[in-house]
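Possible regression after last week's pipeline update?

I re-ran a chain I had predicted before the update to compare outputs. Posting the input and the new output here so someone can diff against the archived version. Not blocking, just want to make sure nothing changed silently.
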Amino acid sequence: MSKLTLKLSQQQKLSPQQIQFVKLLQVPTAELAARIEEELEENPALEEGSDENWEEKVENVEDLGREELEVDDYLQDDYAGYKMAGDSYDPNEETKERPIAVVPSSEEFLMMQVGFVVNSEREEIIAQQLIGSLEDDGYLRRNLESIVNDLEFTIGFVTTLDEVKSVLKKVQQIDPPGIAARDLQECLLIQLHRKSHGEEEMEMAIEIIEKYFDEFTKKHFTQLKQKLGLSEEAFKKVIQIITHLNPRPGGQTDGDFAPIIQPDFIVSQSAGKLDVKLNGKNAPELKVSRAFQEMLQTYDKGDKQNKEVKEAVTFIKHKLDSASWFIQAIQQRHATLLKTMQSIVQLQYDFFLSGDDAQLKPMKMKAIAELIEMDVSTVSRVVSSKSVQTDFGIYPLKYFFSEGITNASGEDFSVRELKNILREIIESEPGDDPYSDEQLEELLLERGFVVKRRTVAKYREQMGIPVARLRKST
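New output (post-update):
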């Protein structure tokens, strides 16, 4: 005989509005426009445009529904057909792929810029042939004589080697810097000349790549310092400029994705102060449809007991609620994103002023969560797939979070900074007798960092630096 039991339990469930907000929080700026467009197509009560009084109007509609209409009387099982997206929450829905913003391919991105650097139709034809001959990493390894022949045999276009060389110089002016270089040396020089504004260190970096490229690639740094007459500190700054250049300007992109990142935040400095703002390019202003609000206000002109009137009122009310909730979720998303980014900038202020990795402090998501008085999971969703544009480049938000390590004097350093120190030691090692992991451990200890040999090996491998015997120059 079966027994009848009664069990009382408490469960925490997210409201439809909370579910919608959580989903929007994870969406990066590049995909936000697609998500808004999807909602605009599904909900006719939601429109593009600004309406300063939309909140007041929505409140009036809600009051109308509660006090005069008593909409709850209409919300019977037979008529509650329309649900806002997210009313019935399915845990498996989180695993669905979000729409990806399709952008021009790498080749299309380069072709779009050609018109800004060429002066004639002839030059444009040659430029297109050059771009079409680039390899995935952005280099032009096909010799120019062959390109002259390709143009003549494929499209009957007759040109000269000098003309192709002239157009190539113009193609090398487009972004990303270093594109269409014929070798690594030319690639680095293009980037250095683009960055140079007459600074002594930049000019010295150009001289190294132009005149002493072979010594640089073989890491004969002691000889270079002597030839250039530089101090240890000045030489390190010059080498740092070179090592921060991009040796693969074409990147790893393939298919329908261009090597462009749409930043979610923009951090700029003016007069020594930092300004943090959201990148709102892909977020159009939204408002609740006035026509739908007026439609709901005409309910009293119909028969309230009529089934069709009940269905119409239920449909309109749900659509208006959905539009109101979506606008509020977008506004809440913006506020949460901005609050989180401001906290990150507050903790990493020195880095955003200088762009120096050595200024990065150890930082965990828990610290940000405490600052903004929100859960760590919220911070995690904000950080996921988001990036920030600074005066020194574009960085993923995850770049600013790292574990910390304490040196002998009790100072806290980020693991990233320790890796940079380790890289500097390896870069300044004798080319004919590179340091082993045991020696690197001892050298770090001399600087006050207690790091085991296995940890040194792990950090070295993470930075893509080979073992000592493979670093030895012949």
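Follow-up from reviewer: compared with the archived run. Residues 54-103, 252-259 have pLDDT under 50 and may be disordered. Marking as no regression found.
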